[in-house]
Amino acid sequence: MPRPISAVIHLQNFTHNLSVVRQHVGHAKIWSVMKADAYGHSIKHVWKALAASDGFAILDLNEAILLREQGWKGPILLLEGFFQPDDLKVIDQYQLTTAVHSYWQLDAIENRHFQNPISVYVKLNSGMNRLGFEPPEYAQVVHRLSAMENVETVTLMTHFANSDLSTGTDKPHAIIKQFIDGQFPVCIANSGATLWHPKTHYDWVRSGVILYGASPSGRWQDIADKDLRATMTLQSQIIATHEIAAGESIGYGSKFTAPYPMKIAMVACGYADGYPRHAPTGTPIWLNGTRCPLLGTVSMDMLTIDVSECPTAKIGDRVELWGKNLPIDDVAQAAGTIGYELMCALAKRVPVVYEN
Questions:
Q1: Is pLDDT of 2 > 90?
Q2: How confident is the model over 121-130, as pLDDT tens digits?
Q3: Which of 138, 232, 322, 353 has the fewest Cβ atoms surrounding its Cβ within 10 A?
Q4: Looking at residue 168, what DSSP letter applies?
Q5: Gap between the Cα atoms of 272 and 284, Å rounded
Q6: For this structure, is 324 an active site residue?
């Protein structure tokens, strides 16, 4: 028999979460973000559950081609644009929308012959300082693109660094508002802005992690009232139990020593499965309706939990590492990371089951 670990992807929860986003954005259209192979969930397997989206936003050409080959005929946005001038051949062939953030991209578009004009999203650097044109040059860039025969539509775009804060979008929003005059569509709201900053919704929003049932802030309590549902459950089983005495230690480096007699259990899950090795003692794990704390160092293939509060715990009992019963944000917060990383880090060796 294989190891008992598996990841269950809840397809119906994608559809549900998209409906929640619809309730928040009104008439705005929705880009469903599926970069990093749908945040580790598999574009191929989950896109149909999000087929009511107005478009899909992804990272690279291979993902775009996959979506087209799977049958998606709607808009596809390349969030970081294209990386080489020759990529424009694929953009033209598959009718993709591309972000533009650098002058060399402007030159490449201007100098290429297209079978059909393309749509572009012009990225403004409104303070995040990753990609985008600076405010003093932005209007000129927008004008240049809108004058190109190769370009069909131009959309204004920026990205918020702090949309999880109550005033986190104020300054960058004010910067891009000076360019919003009704002439061009606007797309600036990410997941956090979608939930908490309705004035930023405009024509399109880009919904990412909220479609996967996790919080843009990394804190589950911030979305507990939004009715968002987990799309991934990582589960395994207890494969051994022990009674240890006070003073005995657990795992590599003996980093946890029992302060009193304890019942512990070994779970078939480790960092080679994508569980964070740096997760500290106390990280929650769900067993039979109880949150049991992780103990000691996470091994490659196993981890240890304290089941003293679950005296009936036995070999074969189901354990949830994160998912429907244990929000991924709670695990990530305890481990000093974010739910995004845990989703994307799911290892290839973990069997995945897709359920409706």
A1: no
A2: 999 999 999 9
A3: 353
A4: T
A5: 19
A6: no
